[in-house]
Amino acid sequence: MTLVEPLIRYFKNYFPLTAKEKEELSIRFSERRIKRRGFVLQAGDVCRHFTFVVSGCLKMYAVDASGKEHNLQFVAENDWITDMASFYPEKPGKVYIEAVEPTTVLQIKHEDLIYLYTNYHKFDRNFRIIIEQKYIALQNRLLLNISATAEERYLYFMEQYPHLANRLPNTQIASYIGITPEFLSKIRKERSLSQ
Questions:
Q1: What backbone torsions phi and psi does residue 159 show, to the nearest 5 degrees?
Q2: 71: β partners
Q3: Residue 122 and residue 118: Cα distance in Å, rounded?
Q4: pTM for the whole thing?
Q5: C-beta of residue 2 within 8 angstroms of C-beta of residue 68
Q6: Which of 25, 88, 126, 128 lies deepest, with the highest CB count within 10 Å?
Q7: Which residues pair with 83 in a beta bridge?
Q8: In which band, very low, low, confident or very high, does the pLDDT at 14 lie, cut at 50, 70 and 90?
């Protein structure tokens, strides 16, 4: 299996790839292995890569003035992550991207992604769709944060991340939902009793 085989399988779900396009992926993407709690990105750094998760799980979070972490996003196998507010304008970012568990990723640099956009329009279209999906998820999450109960936010988490519910500690899930781990335990207990 080649280094970029997981990426080739991912793209094949959307469009067929020519031999030249597969070759471009192998040239433009590089593999990186990240230990648990290792960083893909730290606040203050410029995000230089768009990242595809081959195995493992990453979280994106911000830290407030009191030092409290606020989880913004989780990504696992066959999903993408980047700090778009840093990656595209090439300016220092305000978020961290950290491995929740040992993780293997494939990364593409900004200039290489622009090359693919320019020379292979199917990649331009596919990455636009990825970005649109991420934007829709962000908008849905913002609406939930201002209008939904804690239980509704928990149910949304379970709908969006069913594959991660047993892989993430309660503290991580609670941070994403915006509640304490104790309140999360209470919600889970009440839901198990009502079912």
A1: -70, -40
A2: 61
A3: 10
A4: 0.91
A5: no
A6: 25
A7: none
A8: confident
